[in-house]
Every structure is written in C-alpha cells, then in structure tokens.
Design brief:
584 residues; alpha/beta; nine-stranded mixed β-sheet; 18% strand
Length: 584
C-alpha cells in the first residue's frame, strides 16, 4: 500500500550547541542530531499514526548512512531517499555539481530559550535532487504532499520539487507548505526568499508561517495585511505559529486561536517544535480534506480549533527533549499529555473555596450607565452608587461623563476609581469626538476610560481606522496615567472579528478588552471571555460586562479568564457571596 503522505526536501545533520543562549562564535561543544524540516515532519507524521515516504538525497558518507538509518528506524519509507555517490576526479571534471555538494548537508545551530535561533549551513547533497527522481509512481496512491521552501532556492532540486508540486496538484492531493527563511543560505537574499515562498503558497491548501518569518514570507509586518496577501494566492487555511503566544488559524473568514503550553512544560529545546506542530495539523486535517471533496474550505471553526489545540500539544511536547527528530512525540504520548494537562487544568479551575469578599469586590466595577434617574433626586442616585462602592470596596464606579465630577468628590480619599464611558453606547461618534470626550473626562477626574469601539469600521474590515482610533485613545489615557478599556460589543461580531479586535487592542497597549456595553442584543458569554483571554494572553486585562446579575455568573466569567466584572448588580452579588460564606 502506498504511503499516505509524501515529504520532499532536505535531510541533514543538526549540530546543536550544548549551551543555550550562546552565540555560535562562542559555542565550544555541539551535539549531532538528525534534522531538516521536511524530514522532521515525515517522522512526526509517522509517529502520529500516518504512513509517510521521504523524498530527498544525502551524501555517501557516515552522516548520510546514519540519516537513512534514522528514518528507517522511525518507520518512514526511504525507498525514494537516494545517496549521492562520490565521483572520481576524472568524472568530476565534466560534472557541474561540486564535490562538496555531494556530501551530506550539515547545519550548526545555537538556540535561545525564547525560540530564537542562529544557524550556519553547509549545504550539500539535498540540493542534488533531480526532476528525473520524481515520477507518477511516487505520487500514485498518496493523499498528501508536504514541502518547504529551502529546496526551491537552488537547482536542480528546485526543478525537482516544482515537478512534484505540479503533479500533486494535477492528481488532487492535499498540499501543505511550511516555508523557512534562512539568512545564512548565501547568496540568496530576502527578495529571493519571498519570491519562492509566494510560489509555494500558490500550490497549497494548508500553509504554516512562523511569526519570526512573517515579514519575509508575506511581505508585510502587519498581521491582517499578511493574511490577505497569503489568502489571495489561493491558500485555504493559514496557520501562524507565534511561539509563547500560541498559534492562530484562519480561512479568511474566521480566525481561531490556541494558547501555547509553555507554562505546562519544561522547555529543553525548541528546534523541532514547528515541524511537530505542522505534522499534527496534517494528520488532523487530512481526513477533513477528503470528507470535503478535496478541499479545506468547508471545515468549520470547531474542527480547526481542535486541530490547532492538538498541534500546540505536539509542538509543546517536542520542546521537552533535545534535538528535532529524537524529540518528536508519538500519538499515545500526545493523548496522555492532553489528558493529564486537561485534568490538571480542570482541577485548577475547581474552586476549593469561594473568593473572599475583598477579592471579589476588587474585581467588580459598580455600574450606573442608565440615561435616567432611578430616584426622583438624581444626586441621591449617584450618592447611593458611591456609598455602595465604599461599603463593599468595589474596584471602581462606572458612570457617564456627566457624573464623573460628582463621583470623584464623593469617593475622595477612598482609593475607589472613577470610570467614564466614552462613545457610549454605539461607538459611532468620530475618533476626534471620542478623543475630546476622553480628555474632558480625565480633566474632570476620571481615572479609567471605557471606550466603545467603532463596530461598523471593524465589521467592514477597515482595520487601519480601528487601529488608529484605539492607539489615539490609549495614548491620551496613558499620558495621564489613566486605565484604558475598549468595549467590543461582542454580540454583533463574528469570532474572527472578535479576535481581530482583541489583537488590535493588545498590540496598541490597552489595559483591558471589554465584552459589552450591556445595552446590545446580548451581554457577556463564557465562550467570548475564553476567546478574548486566549487572544490577548496574560498581558491585557479582560472585562466581562452585560447581563451579569448573580454570583454564579460572575464566578463563571472569572473562571473563563475575566479579571474585571462590570455589573449594576454588584451589591446583590456581594450579598450572595456573604450568605454562602456564612452558610457553606
């Protein structure tokens, strides 16, 4: 039976520095390990339960023999892994391929704990792959072709890989692409690397790009601009690996994210993490590709989310051992890791006790944003709000700008902050008006600003407008040491739009992303808070607001990742907590 997946490209020896965080010029000892991105993917795919054949060339030397044995021991089909024979001096006179090119490729590398790598290549036999090495018999019966970009840099290997890519496309195989940019592969420059990477995008269904190679690969620094450039080439699903920030996947319509598992593991080395990640995506999405008639376009968000979470687990586990191929986990190891990690997370999330009154109160923003009075005397309404805040020790009171000065006076000396709602509740005032509102509220004593995002501009994809507005408000707030929160009004947004909004806010330096005004068609949901927390990470606060009226709901939002709760029911929530503490 033909192998399911074909991996084509480089197989080499990695000489990895034994000392982390040391420049190559200062490294004294190295450990040799088999490597090469497509070969790593081949082994990972096999260990995750799929059959695989590797297509490439190694030298007729001790390294080449060892590499071939390594793949064979990993149960990867090596019938198309050729050995480049050394030539006599007379034969070499008429051969354009230099003698050094017939030796196995090696690379010296130093790795930093943050994933940064310094690499020095001595390229050899891998670039000797020829078009004649690619035949219809190789692809017949296969389901997927996986390739990288390094092989496309030099002939004759570039022509050989292009032939395989064209044949695989014509035979309707699933095609997956993981480009790499290696500055030390002189004399190739960024422009050449970008050109061949874009060529690779035009053939594939699934592509993965690492964050550190994003600019060269896509031609853009900006995430959204890069995504649009890649999707324009015909890619059906794009995955972006972001190191300690996890990963995201998009089909151009929705975006899903998955957090890194760095906190759950002890990182030894990150060399093979990306390749293990890519192999996991292939093994999980290949059945979906077949189910959807040879396309990834019809796959839903939940399926992509599950694949992304699984791939993150594989990548994380690969970081726990040295080397690339030796560190790649088996399917059973991944399943065990996921089950134990899941259990640990669940146990962590089960509360052994309720929060203290002080802990919960410091997470509650006591809110009065109605446009009318609850009592005949408006001052009494605001006085009661502030008196309740003093009584329970709430984090802040949230009011409309017209009530800021009154609250500041009533709460003087208490340490309770006063927040003003800006662009409230529709977010449809201009950026200039929002900027004026913000400055005015700060001048009147506001120490927190909750600004409603321009939802229409977000929905229309005008991210430059959204980004500019958020950055302006953040600058105004932070110049006065004021906390800046941005309200997304999630009830009107798709998950992809929520992710985009959170990323803009995170990158602009906001202090909190906030779910809702409380006046939309729906308020906060656990699912939205999970998504927001997963997207912004730990560096940005998440505020759940809208429809939070009891203790159970408030605690559910906190468990999902919220560290502020906006509610007009703060008093009843605190009273419920005190009752439960009194009668456990």
């Amino acid at each position: 039976m033909a192998p399911e997946v074909i991996c084509i490209g480089e197989l080499l020896v990695d000489f990895v520095a034994t000392e982390p965080n040391v420049a190559l010029t200062h490294v004294t000892t190295f450990t040799a390990a088999p490597g090469g991105a497509p070969a790593n993917v081949a082994v990972a795919i096999r260990r995750l339960g799929r059959t695989c054949v590797f297509v490439g060339k190694v030298g007729d030397d001790v390294f080449g023999i060892k590499l071939r044995e390594t793949l064979h021991q990993a149960h990867v089909d090596t019938s198309h892994l050729a050995i480049v024979k050394q030539q006599t001096d007379k034969e070499a006179q008429d051969d354009a391929i230099e003698r050094s090119s017939r030796q196995t490729t090696i690379v010296f590398g130093s790795v930093w704990e943050d994933g940064h790598k310094e690499l020095c290549f001595y390229r050899g036999a891998d670039r000797c792959l020829e078009p004649n090495d690619i035949s219809a018999a190789l692809l017949r019966g296969a389901k997927c072709l996986h390739y990288g970009s390094i092989t496309l840099l030099e002939e004759p290997a570039a022509s050989a890989q292009r032939k395989a890519m064209k044949m695989a496309r014509d035979m309707r195989l699933m095609m997956t692409f993981d480009p790499n940019y290696r500055p030390t592969l002189s004399p190739k420059n960024e422009e050449t690397a970008h050109r061949v990477i874009m060529e690779g995008f035009r053939y594939c269904h699934l592509a993965k790009v690492s964050q550190e190679e994003w600019r060269v690969a896509t031609g853009h620094e900006d995430l959204q601009a890069g995504i649009q450039a890649v999707m324009k080439e015909g890619v059906e699903l794009l995955v972006v690996s972001r190191g300690e920030n996890g990963a995201l996947a998009t089909n151009g319509e929705f975006i899903v994210t998955s957090p890194a598992l760095i906190r759950d593991i002890k990182v030894v080395e990150t060399t093979g993490a990306g390749d293990g990640f890519m192999a996991a995506m292939i093994t999980r999405l290949l059945p979906e590709f077949e189910k959807h008639g040879g396309s990834l376009k019809g796959i839903d968000e939940s399926t992509v989310q599950a694949a992304l979470d699984y791939a993150n687990a594989v990548g994380g586990l690969t970081c726990t051992k040295a080397g690339a191929i030796p560190a790649l986990p088996t399917a059973s190891e991944v399943e065990h890791f996921l089950s134990t990690t899941s259990n640990a997370i669940q146990k962590k999330e089960i509360r052994s006790s309720l929060p203290s009154a002080q802990e919960l109160a410091q997470m509650l923003d006591h809110t009065f944003l109605k446009p009318y009075c609850r009592v005949r005397d408006h001052d009494a309404d605001i006085e009661r709000l502030c008196q309740e805040a003093r009584q329970f020790g709430f984090a802040m009171v949230a009011v409309n700008p017209a009530q800021v000065e009154r609250c500041v006076k009533l709460l003087a000396g208490t340490g309770i902050r006063v927040g003003a709602a800006v662009g409230f509740p529709l977010g449809q005032t201009t950026s200039a008006v929002k900027a004026f509102e913000t400055r005015d509220a700060i001048q009147r004593g506001a120490t927190e600003i909750d600004m409603v995002l321009n939802i229409r501009e977000l929905q229309q994809g005008n991210m430059d407008v959204v980004k500019s507005e958020v950055e302006t408000l953040v600058q105004i707030c932070h110049d006065s040491n004021v906390i800046c929160k941005v309200i997304l009004e999630t009830c009107y947004l798709t998950d992809g739009q929520k992710v985009k909004a959170c990323e803009v806010c995170r990158d602009a330096g906001v202090d909190f992303v906030k779910s809702s005004t409380g006046l939309g068609t729906a308020g906060a949901t656990v699912e939205d808070i999970l998504l927001m927390r997963r997207t912004v990470g730990d560096s940005v606060g998440v505020k759940a607001s809208g429809g939070i009226r009891d203790l159970e709901c408030a605690l559910a939002m906190i468990d999902a990742g919220a560290n502020r709760i906006g509610t007009s029911c703060g008093v009843s929530i605190m009273q419920e907590l005190l009752r439960q503490q009194a009668n456990p």
